[in-house]
């Protein structure tokens, strides 16, 4: 069912598998313990960074199929994209697998775009199992969108660090896992920013537009979500989004976070934080999925943003059009059943403790009676003498 920009998914596809692979810098960040694989170096055994990025995607796709307990023949479709021209990393990775491939480009919003498309296809019954995947590499993105690494250019305070990493999910109606209940497809928004080193300021208006539309379409408020998570706005961009939403009378509150802002530790000197399509993909497919499975989060609104620029448009002085897609993910834990089970367990413990206490009391009474009988018997014996 569709409500303007939002699709309400009746069957609610599950994320039955997730996998992440990251570089060493990312492994030393705030989410290091949650990633499936941390590379020893950014080359990943390849001669070029571009080939390393391709290999990361291949590893993530292979890993997520295995974690979902599936085989290649079980996959109906793979939806993937990346940051490089003609999405070559995804296309070249796809040739290693024997299932259909749908290539998409949403820049840093690609993880949400792939999940949105995959969820709609699975929910409608056209596909049974869909792989959603994206990734990025610091070195490949820097030399494509900004400057050659060899120049060693000084980075301005508004700059972010492109995450070296790839994340993948498997969507299906069969199996257990966090479920996709709604997706909101975003519109392209351009507020006139043309600085390639200030992605947060460029993308924040797109996050505002999609978030406002999602809340209006679904008649929800930020309080209805345990976590509202944007992707790659970074420190400056997330602060801008908070201000923009306050201007609309919406207070995001303490349950708002941004993948880019949270990704690295302060001593790692990444300025405004992480970015790249691998940023929110690796956070989502590791930390977020795990916390949903554990029941720490009940309902999450996931809003990755993407800057739809190209090196050519930048060189020609064009402003940066941006997009943001939203996905609502809910845990697969039956809260009522869990509470009932907890109550039942507590009752069983209480009954057990009561029974043990009754036994102790009965034993004490028995010992006391035995002692009284022994005393009386001793007294009778004395009187007889």
Give structural notes:
The structure is a single chain. Helix content is 43%, strand content 19%. It has 385 residues and is of the alpha/beta class. The chain has 2 domains: 2-333, Peroxisomal Thiolase, Chain A, domain 1 (3-Layer(aba) Sandwich); 344-385. The strands form 3 sheets. Strands 1, 2, 10, 11, 12, 14, 15 and 16 form an 8-stranded mixed beta sheet that branches. A 6-stranded mixed beta sheet has the order 4-3-9-7-5-6, with helices on both faces. Strands 8-13 form a two-stranded parallel sheet. Helix 2 (49-67) packs across helix 3 (88-94) and helix 6 crosses helix 7 (234-247). The radius of gyration is 28 Å and the shape is globular. The N and C termini lie far apart (99 Å).
Kindly estimate the percentage of residues that lie in beta strands according to DSSP. Answer: 15-25%
Cα-atom radius of gyration: 28 Å
In CATH, the architecture of the largest domain is 3-Layer(aba) Sandwich
Order of helices and strands: EEEHEHEHEHEHEEEHEHEHEHEHEEH
Indicate the CATH class of the largest domain: Alpha Beta
Task: Characterize this entry briefly.
About 45% of the residues lie in helices and about 20% in strands.
């Amino acid at each position: 069912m569709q409500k303007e920009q939002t699709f309400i998914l009746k069957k609610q596809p599950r994320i039955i598998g997730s996998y992440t692979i990251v570089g060493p810098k990312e492994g030393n960040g705030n989410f290091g313990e949650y990633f499936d694989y941390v590379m020893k170096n950014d080359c990943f055994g390849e001669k070029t960074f571009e080939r390393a990025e391709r290999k990361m995607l291949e590893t993530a796709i292979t890993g997520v199929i295995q974690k979902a307990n599936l085989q290649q023949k079980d996959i109906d479709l793979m939806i993937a994209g990346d940051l490089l021209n003609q999405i070559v990393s995804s296309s070249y990775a796809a040739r290693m697998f024997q299932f259909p491939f749908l290539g998409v480009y949403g820049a840093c919003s690609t993880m949400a775009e792939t999940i949105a498309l995959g969820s709609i296809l699975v929910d409608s019954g056209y596909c049974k199992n869909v792989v959603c995947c994206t990734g990025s590499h610091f070195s490949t993105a820097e030399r494509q969108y900004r400057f050659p690494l060899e120049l060693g250019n000084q980075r301005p305070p508004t700059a972010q660090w492109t995450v070296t990493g790839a994340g993948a999910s498997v969507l299906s109606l069969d199996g257990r896992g966090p479920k996709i209940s709604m997706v909101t497809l975003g519109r392209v928004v351009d507020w006139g920013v043309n600085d390639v080193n200030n992605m947060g300021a460029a993308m924040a208006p797109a996050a505002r537009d999609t978030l406002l539309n999602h809340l209006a379409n679904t008649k929800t408020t930020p309080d209805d979500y345990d976590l509202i998570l944007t992707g790659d706005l970074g420190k400056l961009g997330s602060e801008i989004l908070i201000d923009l939403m306050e201007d609309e009378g919406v207070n995001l509150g303490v349950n708002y976070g941004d993948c880019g802002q949270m990704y690295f530790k302060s001593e790692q000197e990444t300025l405004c934080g992480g970015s790249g399509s691998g940023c929110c993909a690796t956070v989502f497919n590791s930390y977020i999925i795990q916390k949903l499975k554990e029941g720490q989060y009940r309902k999450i609104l996931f809003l990755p943003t993407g800057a739809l620029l190209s090196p050519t448009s930048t060189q020609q002085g064009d402003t940066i059009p941006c997009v943001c897609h939203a996905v609502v993910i809910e845990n697969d834990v039956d809260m009522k059943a869990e509470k009932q089970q907890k109550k039942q367990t507590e009752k069983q413990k209480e009954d057990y403790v009561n029974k043990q206490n009754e036994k102790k009391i009965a034993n004490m009474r028995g010992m006391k009676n035995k002692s009284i009988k022994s005393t009386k018997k001793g007294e009778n014996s004395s009187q007889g003498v």
